[in-house]
Design goal:
Largest sheet: 8 strands, mixed
Number of strands: 12
Radius of gyration: 26 Å
Shape: globular
CATH superfamily of the largest domain: P-loop containing nucleotide triphosphate hydrolases
Distance between the termini: 24 Å
Helix content: 40-55%
Number of helices: 15
Length: 476
C-alpha cells in the first residue's frame, strides 16, 4: 500500500508492567513484557487483524494505541491529523530545540529525531534562531486556526440540527440566530488566523529555499514527518483526540454503565465533546440516527443494558463508539463473548459500517475464522512480538511461521473430505516476565534448532508483502 495512506505508524512500541519485588533483597524490579517491541503500519480504510493465543499482548497493544495505557517505549504516529491542523504542546518544545542543534545531517537525525521530523531541511539553515522563531509563529497560528475551526464545526452541527427541524419554537429560533451570529464572528477570526498562518508558512518556505543546495538536504527532508505522536500528547490533548480514536470492548455487559440508559450511553460523549447540548431535541434525534445505523430500534432509547441480549448490548457498544464519527476503531475481541449465531451478524454490521463511515479497524481476536472473514491484512502475535504479517488470504493459504501454522491447524472444520486432524500446540506459554532467549517460540516449536535458542530471528520480507520473524520459515 502507498506510504501516504498510512493512518497509524507504530515504531518499536513496548508496554512493560512493573511488578512488586518478591523480597527486599531482590535487586531488580520484575516486569511483565506484554508488548515487547512492535513496529507496524496500519493503512487508512483497512481492517487490520491481530491474532494470537490469550496472553500474547493483543488487547494490551490495542489499548496502547488508544493511549489507555501509557507505553514504556516507542512512538505512535497518527496521520488522521497533522501539525498543519493540530499543534500539540510538544511541537513547540521541538521547535525550541532547533537553536541547540549542531553537527552534520546524520548526527542531527540521530540526536534530534523529533526535531528533524518537525523541521526537515530547515535544520541546515545558518540562522537557527530565526528558524525556531518562524516555526513557533507558524505553530501558534496552526493552534489558533485549529481551535477556531473546531468551534465553527461544532456550531455548524448545532445549526444544521435546528435547520432540519420543521417546527421551531420561538426560543429555538432565538438560539439559532445566536448560533449564526457566533459562526459569522468566528469566520472573521478564522480568516485572520489563516492569514497569519499563510504568512508564517511563506516565511518558512523562504527559509527552506536557502537549504536545498546544502549537503544532507535529501536525508533531512526524508526525515520530515508532520504527523502527531500520540505518545507525546498531554491528557487534555489526548482527550480531544478521542473523537477520532474509539474502541469496542469484548464484554458487552461490563463495558456499559448499567445505570445509564441506551440514549445516555451513546450521547454522553457527544455532550462531553460539545457536539450537542445536553437534553436537546437535536441530541436525541442524532442519537436515534446512530442507533438505527447499528440495528437498534428507536424505542430502545430509554431502556437499560440489562434489558438486552448480548448481541444487542454489543450493538449499543458499537453505536457508542461511532457516535463521535471516529476514523479508527479498535475492536477488542468484539464478537468473542457472543453466540456463534450472533457473531456473524455483528461482523456483517462492522463491515457495513466500515464502508459507510470510511472507518479503519484494528480487529483483535483469537478466532482465526472471524479474522479471515473481516480482515484485509493479518498480524500474528506471540509473547509481545509480531512474528508474521501478510495479506489475509496469503497468510491463511501459505503461513510461513511455525506458530501461525499450528494456529491454523487447530481450527475445527466441517469438511469431511479433508480428514484434517486438529493439532494442539505442545507445551505451555512461557512467562512474559522472563521470556526465553532467542526466538520466544523455540520452547514449543517442532522445527527449533540450536541457534533458535540463542539468536533473535530477523524480521524480514521473505515474500512480497509477506513478513516473518523466523530462522527456519515454512517456505512453500
Amino acid at each position: 500500500m502507498a506510504e501516504n495512506n498510512v493512518l497509524l505508524r507504530l515504531d518499536n512500541v513496548k508496554m512493560h508492567f512493573a511488578l512488586k519485588k518478591s523480597s527486599i533483597f531482590q535487586k531488580e524490579r520484575p516486569y511483565v513484557k506484554a508488548v515487547d517491541g512492535v513496529t507496524i503500519d496500519i493503512y487508512e480504510g483497512e481492517t487490520f487483524g491481530l491474532v494470537g493465543e490469550s496472553g500474547c499482548g493483543k488487547s494490551t497493544l490495542g489499548r496502547v494505541i488508544l493511549q489507555l495505557y501509557e507505553q514504556t517505549a516507542g512512538s505512535l504516529h497518527y496521520r488522521g491529523v497533522t501539525l498543519n491542523d493540530y499543534a500539540p504542546a510538544y511541537s513547540f518544545k521541538d521547535a525550541a530545540k532547533i537553536t541547540s542543534v549542531t553537527g552534520n545531517a546524520g548526527e542531527i537525525i540521530k540526536k534530534f529525531r523529533g526535531t528533524a521530523k518537525l523541521s526537515g531541511a530547515l535544520l541546515l539553515h545558518d540562522n537557527l534562531a530565526e528558524v525556531a522563531k518562524t516555526m513557533t509563529e507558524s505553530l501558534n497560528a496552526v493552534k489558533d486556526v485549529y481551535h477556531v475551526q473546531r468551534e465553527i464545526n461544532l456550531l455548524d452541527l448545532k445549526r444544521v440540527s435546528y435547520q432540519e427541524s420543521s417546527n421551531l419554537s420561538a426560543a429555538e429560533k432565538r438560539r439559532l440566530a445566536k448560533i449564526e451570529e457566533k459562526i459569522a464572528s468566528h469566520d472573521e477570526t478564522l480568516k485572520r488566523h489563516q492569514a497569519r498562518l499563510a504568512q508564517a508558512n511563506k516565511a518558512l518556505a523562504d527559509l527552506r529555499v536557502h537549504c536545498t543546495a546544502k549537503e544532507g538536504y535529501d536525508r533531512l527532508e526524508a526525515a520530515r514527518d508532520i504527523s502527531v505522536d500520540l505518545s507525546r500528547l498531554t491528557k487534555e490533548e489526548m482527550r480531544r483526540m478521542r473523537a477520532d480514536l474509539q474502541i469496542v470492548f469484548q464484554d458487552p455487559y461490563s463495558s456499559l454503565n448499567q445505570r445509564f440508559s441506551v440514549g445516555q450511553l451513546i450521547s454522553e460523549a457527544l455532550v462531553t465533546h460539545k457536539m450537542y447540548a445536553r437534553g436537546t431535541r437535536q441530541l436525541e434525534e442524532y442519537t436515534i440516527s446512530i442507533m438505527e445505523k447499528c440495528g437498534l430500534q428507536n424505542y430502545f432509547l430509554h431502556r437499560y443494558p440489562h434489558q438486552f441480549s448480548g448481541g444487542q448490548r454489543q450493538r449499543i457498544g458499537i453505536a457508542r463508539a461511532l457516535a463521535l464519527q471516529p476514523k479508527f476503531v479498535v475492536c477488542d475481541e468484539a464478537v468473542s463473548a457472543l453466540d456463534v449465531s450472533i457473531q456473524s451478524q455483528i461482523i456483517n454490521l462492522l463491515m457495513d459500517l466500515k464502508d459507510s463511515q470510511n472507518l479503519t479497524y484494528l480487529f483483535i481476536s483469537h478466532d482465526l475464522s472471524a479474522v479471515k472473514f473481516i480482515s484485509d491484512r493479518v498480524a500474528v502475535m506471540y509473547l509481545g512480538n509480531i512474528v508474521e504479517l501478510s495479506d489475509s488470504d496469503r497468510i491463511f493459504a501459505e503461513p510461513l511461521h511455525p506458530y501461525t501454522n499450528v494456529l491454523l491447524e487447530a481450527i475445527p472444520t466441517t469438511d469431511e473430505a479433508s480428514k484434517k486432524e486438529l493439532q494442539i500446540i505442545e507445551g505451555d506459554i512461557p512467562s512474559p516476565i522472563n521470556p526465553p532467549p532467542g526466538c520466544k517460540f523455540h520452547t514449543r516449536c517442532r522445527y527449533a534448532q540450536d541457534n533458535c535458542k540463542t539468536d533473535v530471528p530477523e524480521w524480514r520480507e521473505l515474500l512480497p508483502h509477506h513478513f516473518v520473524a523466523c530462522h527456519y520459515p515454512l517456505v512453500p
